[in-house]
Amino acid sequence: MHPALVCVQGFRLRLVGHSLGGATASLLAMMLRKKSEEELGFCPSIVSAVGFASPPCVSRTLAVQSLEFVRTIVLQVLLNSSQDSCILVIITNKKFYEISYCVG
Question: Does the pTM exceed 0.90?
Answer without folding.
Answer: no
